[in-house]
Amino acid sequence: MKPKSLHAQMIAMIAATIALCWVGALALLFAYLAHNKTSTWDDKLKTIAIRLLTTIPADADLTVTGPALRLRNPALERSEKLAFQVWINRRQLAVPSPGAPATPLRPDFEDGPATTEIAGQRWRVYSVSDADGRVHVQVGNPHSVVDAEIRNDALTGLVRTSLVLLVVGALMWMVVHTSLKQVVALEAAMRGRRKFDLTPLSPDALPRELHPLVASFNHLLLQLAESIEGERRFIGDAAHELRTPLAALQAQAQIALRANTVADKDLALTKLLRVAQSSSRLSEQLLDLARLNAGANAPQHTPEDLGDLVLHVARDFDTHALQHERSLLLEIGRCTIRCNVDEIGILLRNLIDNALRYTSKGGRVRVGCGYQPDAEPGQAPKAYLDVADDGPGVPPPERQAIFERFHRAAGTSARGSGIGLSLVAGIAQSHHATIETGSGLDGRGFAVRIVFPAAAAGADVQNP
């Protein structure tokens, strides 16, 4: 469905408003004119009737009638529809006007205005009588004349009102068109930008009502700029990190090809396998980091038993620990967290792998989880995940820096990619968890504790 134009919507609303105003003005005009014209005609008829009655002499002999005078211009008579009658004692029509009906304009001879019907024609009549009630003067006008005058006045008023509303509509259209020019200019400026030009928009030339919208656009542009810059840094860092293992792979392959003995060839192939394993691990971490940064894994958090997750991931490292003469200890307590299972698996693998690689032969790595016992009364306890070793450890000044991408602690013999702990930090942040660091087993080594938010109400709380 094609989206509606804001310009078209505003014009349509203005047109609808003007149309409603036009209809309302027309109705009010007809109602006003109908009432006002009737009142005006009643006043005219009343004035004529009173003047006629008071003009008749009190001793006039109205019983004598004769032919009426003729006008010099007979055409004037045809243009006037007004009629009047002078009745004596309600029975004798003494003075009728030309064209007046032979019957009383108002048969009940009551004083005041009234609407009557004579020979199928409606009349508006005003009747007045003398003090003795002997003489009655009735003045009337056909209702068609009153209606025609009302229609003419209404048509004139309607034309004038329509012209005024058309002028108002044109002015409002010009105002809307002029006001939206700034928005159209902003759209044209955005389309004219070069690729990846994420400079914030300037709201100075726009109305204040659009400033919040521009501010939201600028916030989005800033996020895009930061995201693109982060991706650029990631690509550059990843290319730099992959250059070394790829060069080592090539070198070891050349050594294996030039080896003269089987022993030399096996030694070169063994080193080649180690480099390949390291490159594979680096590639996996880079892919995990890219997916995490791009939001490929939607934050579908569900309640999961952290102990089961720890046990499942730790089993994958049993053989690796035995081959490298390390001990992997588990201290698992049942606890529930809301999490993304895949991301927590990545976090666990990186913490355990990092601890095993930086622990010397015969060393120990302990992985534990459970609920922290220091919960305040009335509050749900927080779950934790703890990975500690008895290796060389990390100096306190560097314990926060090691969670930054491609940072490596100084003075360590093992070579890492510098990505694993940055993945841990990113996943912990997406789960609203905090990271605590400290000394490892028996006061030696290094320990990382991930503290998750308080468990949902009703969780099974069992401390290890």
Automatic annotation (TrEMBL):
Transmembrane recorded as keyword: yes
Coiled coil: none
Membrane topology: Multi-pass membrane protein
UniProt key word Transcription: no
Principal location listed in the UniProt entry: membrane
GO MF annotations, alphabetized: ATP binding; phosphorelay sensor kinase activity
Protein name according to UniProt: histidine kinase
UniProt keyword annotations, A-Z: ATP-binding, Kinase, Membrane, Nucleotide-binding, Phosphoprotein, Transferase, Transmembrane, Transmembrane helix, Two-component regulatory system
Family matches, as SMART domains: HATPase_c, HisKA
Domain HAMP: 177-229
Organism annotation: Variovorax paradoxus
Compartments where located: Membrane
Matching InterPro entries: HAMP_dom, HATPase_C_sf, HATPase_dom, His_kinase_dom, HisK_dim/P_dom, HisK_dim/P_sf, Sig_transdc_His_kin-like_C, TCS_sensor_his_kinase
Pfam families xrefs: HATPase_c (PF02518), HisKA (PF00512)
Transmembrane segments: 12-34, 163-186
Domain Histidine kinase, first and last residues per copy: 237-456
GO cellular component terms listed in the entry, alphabetical order: plasma membrane
Catalysed reactions listed for this entry: ATP + protein L-histidine = ADP + protein N-phospho-L-histidine
Signal peptide positions on this chain: none
Its EC number(s): 2.7.13.3
